[in-house]
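To: structure subgroup
Subject: Chain for Friday's discussion

All,

I'm putting the inputs and outputs inline so they're searchable in the archive.
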Amino acid sequence: MRTEYTVLCLGTGEEVTDNDLPLANPNSPKPAFLRAEYAKKQIEPGEETEGLYRFADWLPIQRRLDGSGAPVTYKSEHLAHELGLKNLYITFNGYWPERGARMLTGTFKECEAYSVCARMPEGYERTLVVASVGNTSRAFVRVCSANNIPLVVVVPERCIDSMWYTGDVRSCVKLIAAGGDSDYFDAITLADLLCESEGFFSEGGAQNIARRDGMGTTILSAVTTAGQIPEYYFQAVGSGTGAIAAWEANLRLIRDGRFGTRKMKLMVSQNAPFLLIHDSWKQGTRKLIEVDSDAARSWSGQIQAKVLSNRKPPYSITGGLYDALSDTAGDVIPVTNEEAGEAGDMFLNLEGIDAAPAASVAIASLIKAVREQRLELKSHIMLNVTGGGIRRIQKEHEIFYLTPYRVVERNNITQEYITKLAEEIKGGN
């Protein structure tokens, strides 16, 4: 069941063939995103039983995979009352059966995984490679194992404890850890080297149209539930891909014509001291600030929300985060570990479900915005709780941890070493 769409290069305006899952247009004179343009201009969500694919009208997919869940949106009563807000809508991604949320990895990264993998034709011969600091890899492990899709996930060794799962993981899935004090950037480097070997290909991160449009289903859930585009959108960011996806979905919803014409103000947040996007935005220019590698590794080790430690975000690229923030008059809010912890406790006490660390950062940013009077209390607000219910999952299900196939020390993240590793992986398959 292929969705009808074309792929547009934002750098040149030309249409690009989607036959081999492109991540960029080689004819573009500058780095620029591709964007899916859908034949169906008005979204018609399907039944909740369809999971993520209830939004298939605006997903660049060739098929549907088993086991997906969709974001769930509801109008908040308790947190809204505590903050004095009149129109706070919470989009919850994770495990909360009473609300109809059944993402068994506890994260909205399932939205991108089920979209990315469904863009791949059945029987695709190459092995997918994904780098992350935990949540994304955990989501891809679930999707690929359930649907027998060859996968290698690469995470920093310090994030191994996030690689848990609730069922069997098939041998088609392998975990590689970047050892020692390696951070997300090191994991990306390792993954990129692996993709230089024949038979492996990169998922592509923010450059993958299916990743962004999968994440954009959070907005589709919120808007089709509330009946209008929100004035403010709150989310914590590491790469900013989710915020870019929200902006793109917003543009599609304006063209839809039934939900208003406003561009919601992107209010994104980062966990201090890892403030690369925040500091770059405050400079007022498209250029991403330069960061010392050792300092960045130190910052990523200090923050509570490890998934927010990307030092190679798609900020400057045409169609990236700088453009999204500029077009929506958005802002970036810094949040400390203490503020995030207090916000997570507040959410649990008031809403009745645990929020993941990154989601707690977003909740804290909303609290700060209200206290600093940065919005009117009657404003229509969407809070994207990007992960939650993990305590419920781990209480109600037997939990297993994925064992690394190999731990690669940082000094071994070289082409020679990784080429040999790739041959070993292919031989093992």
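Points worth raising on Friday:
The CA atoms of residues 65 and 147 lie 7 Å apart.
The chain has a mean pLDDT of 96.

D.
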